[in-house]
Amino acid sequence: MFDVEIERFWNDDKLAHKDNCFNTKAPQIALGIRMSEECVFAELEEDGNPWGYTPIDRRIDLNKRYNDKSEKMVGQRLLPEVFAEKDQVFPEIRRIGEVFGGRYEHNEITEWLEGSCSTMKELEVVLDRVEKMDFREFLLPHNWEIEKKRIYEKYGTKPSLMRHVRGPVTLATSIYGIENLIFLILDEPDLAKRFSKVISDVIFKIASIMDEEAGFSPEKVPGGFSFADDNCCLLNPEMYELFGFPVLKRLFDQWCPNPEDIRYQHSDSNMAHLLPILQRLNFTGCNFGPTVLVNEIRKYMPKTRIDGCIAPFTFMRNDEKTIINEVKRDCEMAKEFRGLNLSTAGSINNGSLLTSMRAVMYTIQNYGRY
Fold first, then answer.
1. In 188-319, where does DSSP find H-type helix?
2. If we measure between CA atoms, which residue out of 212, 205, 229, 251 comes closest to residue 94?
3. How much is the average pLDDT of 15-30?
């Protein structure tokens, strides 16, 4: 086990997270890793589907036992142990993929969004339907008003806002297909622009409806918006400028007008070629692929918090030597600029052990001090 001064580490880490991880008085690089609920199965040597359904009683038991171990190993209880009562959960609204006729299916490993069209003619039919859609009628289930009133009166809870969504390129490739989208942008740019505009309109309408359902007026809605757009890497800069950028720009302008408002993108892919375009969106935070490193991001985003850049598979394999090397690399790159929230460049998957988190802490404490 790596030698870490646990109490000192977490005191220093608290300072490191101030000012969006740009605190000039921070003694060390910030740690972003807090593990994930997927990790309980490998850590505790328990059977289960990390991306599937786990009954709530078993989930609480697993998380508590995991936290008992994490408290000893890294000095923190990392996973939630209290969950909302079953009758406190709002009815599910329909999701953005369903608006475009897609189907969310579970393939026994993970959930997948199946597309709804594969030709330009079929796409036009989908867009015609979406443009005429009564969104409130489509999104909200029949018992929404009754349940919303009951939950608020009993628990004082309002519906959640919609502030995170599948990014425009990933959504479009899921609905229409990867090659289809690329050829559409190249061969029929006007239809591609219409597709992009409809995606923007849909996100705008869903977010606006959920603002209203949560009781906010348009003038007083909380700021912030984030996208998960892994597939943005598939477009070259000109194609992304036409299709993806306008969506983020519009949503950020509407919900993130203030400098402190969260403007975030997760794209755990090799999308460094898009950095010159993405810099114009003034991200407050980003989580990019493991080949898009701190020094490259900093050329374009000097004020953006970087969540990364450990490769998720390095962390999941618990290859402690490689973990230490990647953390040392990122720390050295960040010391001149600050603003690094050291974590994985993507998801923390089952198989990732607490020993790997402790190895990261050891490396930060010994090699990541400013």
1. 189-213, 237-243, 245-255, 275-278, 294-300, 312-316
2. 205
3. 98
What is the distance of C-alpha 32 from the center of its chain?
A: 13
Identify whether the C-beta of residue 287 lies closer than 8 Å to the C-beta of residue 308.
yes
Q: Specify the amino acid at residue 40.
A: V
What's the Cα-to-Cα distance from 248 to each of 97, 139, 224, rounded to whole Å?
Answer: 17, 22, 12
- The DSSP bridge pattern shows strands 340-344 and 225-228 to be unpaired
Residue 159 to residue 213: CA distance in whole angstroms: 7
Give the pLDDT score at 256: 96
Q: Please, are residues 117 and 126 in contact by the beta-carbon 8 Å criterion? A: yes
Nearest-angstrom CA–CA distance, 343 and 10: 15
The C-alpha atoms of residue 281 and residue 370 are separated, in whole angstroms, by 29
Residue 117, token pair as written in the block: 């069209």
Q: Provide the 10 A C-beta neighbour count for residue 244.
A: 26
> What are the pLDDT digits (tens) for 305-347?
999 999 999 999 999 999 999 999 999 999 988 999 999 999 9
What integer pLDDT is reported at residue 219 of this predicted model?
85
The DSSP code for 57 is: H
Which tokens in the block code for residue 165?
């969504």
pLDDT tens column, 237-249: 999 999 999 999 9
Q: What span, in angstroms and rounded, lies between the C-alpha atoms of 350 and 335?
A: 31
* pLDDT of 150 above 90: yes
Whole-model pTM: value is 0.95
Note the pLDDT tens digit of each residue in 180-229. Answer: 999 999 999 999 999 999 999 999 999 999 999 999 998 899 999 999 99
